[in-house]
Amino acid sequence: MTNTKALTDFFTICEKLECEYRLTKMSDGNYQAVASHSWNMAMMAIALRPYLKNNIDMERVLKLCILHDLPEAIAHDVPLHEQTATNKQAKQKHEKDAINTITNLLHDKSIDNLFNEYELRQSPESNFVKLLDILDTTIQHMCAKDLSYVGTYNDNFYWKLFFSDEFANRFNYEPKLRSVYNEIKHRVTARLKNELGIDAKKFTGTITKDENI
């Protein structure tokens, strides 16, 4: 049985996720906390549930949404544009060590199983949650106060990714998700044109690091 000290230690780890920030910015101009990202995913899952073609266990989906990035409270994140074959291995090791720390505190095998399920992506639930993970980034492209920062990373790496066919086709797993992505893409395209004078067509057809999407 998990004792009080271990539970309290676990809660302090959870709090740190609120202090860990992602590369994406919010509508108020601040960077997005990882915990906020996880909460957004859970809200999207609830809203999208009636439209899904795949049968899913909603309780499992919500657990995956909340837990999937928790190791970053310990291991931190490496932005996608900075990932290389070398540091990706180190990132995976740090995250695995963090998962071990978390599961050892909770003494709950089901938690470890959820982490593994998300990484392997062999269930409808984990596939759906991964799509929510990347969809949330596109939502920040739509909502961010100022979009100019996105293009500052590696020669528009994130715009090339966002507007690529490979990225869009990931959402075909759930047609409603694809239609939502298409609407977001339409709005982001308009924002780029109206606010920055950028034609989004210049980014289409190019993608890098597809394995990381």
Low-pLDDT residue intervals, each spanning 5 or more residues: none
The chain-level structural class is mainly alpha
Q: What is the beta-strand fraction?
A: under 5%
Q: What is the annotated CATH architecture? A: Orthogonal Bundle
Radius of gyration: 18 Å
CATH superfamily: Hypothetical protein af1432
CATH class: Mainly Alpha
Secondary-structure element string: HEEHHHHHHHHH
* Tally of helical runs: 10
Spatial order of strands in the largest sheet:
1-2
Overall strand count: 2
What is the CATH third-level topology name?
Answer: Hypothetical protein af1432
Describe what this molecule looks like in 3D.
By secondary structure, the protein is mainly α. The protein has a single domain (4-212), classed as Hypothetical protein af1432 (Orthogonal Bundle), CATH 1.10.3210. The chain has helices at 4-17, 34-48, 58-67, 72-75, 85-106, 109-120, 124-143, 157-162, 165-170, 175-196; strands at 21-25, 31-33. It has a two-stranded antiparallel ribbon with strand order 1-2. Helix 2 runs antiparallel to helix 3, helix 5 runs antiparallel to helix 6 (109-120) and helix 6 packs across helix 7. It is globular. The N and C termini lie far apart (38 Å). The mean pLDDT is 92.
